[in-house]
From TrEMBL:
Family: Belongs to the ETF beta-subunit/FixA family.
Name assigned to this protein: Electron transfer flavoprotein subunit beta
Gene Ontology molecular function: any one: electron transfer activity
Keywords: Electron transport, Transport
Source organism: Wenzhouxiangella limi
Domain Electron transfer flavoprotein alpha/beta-subunit N-terminal, residue spans: 23-211
Cofactor(s) the protein needs: AMP
SMART domains (UniProt xref): ETF
Amino acid sequence: MKILVTIKRVVDYNVRVRVKPDGSGVETDGVKMSINPFDEIALEEALRIKERGEAEEVVVVSIGGTEVQQQLRTGLAMGADRAIQVETDQAVQPLTAARTLLKLVEKEAPDIVFLGKQAIDDDCSQTGQMLAALWDRPQATFASRVELADGKATVTREVDAGLEVNEVDLPAVMTSDLRLNEPRFVKLPDIMKAKRKPLDTVPLADLGVDSPPDLVARTYEPPPRRGGGKMVGSVAELVGELKNKGLL
């Protein structure tokens, strides 16, 4: 069994995101960048599946410029066997990402394609679902538990009413939720070993995928600053303040 895991380079979740003064985007110069947290969880689950002897190879994939190699090397240090960079200097939106991954799926023939349920930069939560539709294979999204047996995957997902259990035939697309696992800490010896693992680069143009922008952002602006709070001495005073603000 082969598992293909996609990872995206994003601003680290511990960093406070700042909009550029000209409103043209988010400030990334000098900002710590990391693997999208949900993608890291997906990779950890793929590695655990391999460590249980249920998969032979884990391949990490990222789409972007040379800078994404840093995150791919981190994925290799975590334990992935090899990495693929789809090279492009353009921002890739979900449908283009899904079409790109489909080309790699056709070449690599994985049994599972594992993605994070969403990226923390755009929160689209679309790529996995789009890939499943283009690939014409089952999907199991927002996984909080994954079990494999007899060519099938049993996936537990959290829903408003509790837990939902789905069984899908492999090959399939899966996306990870927050509570699926806790990713491992990367050690220095593993980082050194990762430098010797294969990392292939494929230009996006060579895959025959057009990347027109499906959505064009004209400008960016931070959310309005919240006003200061006010202490009240009683419930009656609280109700009065709410009425004055037109909230009651």
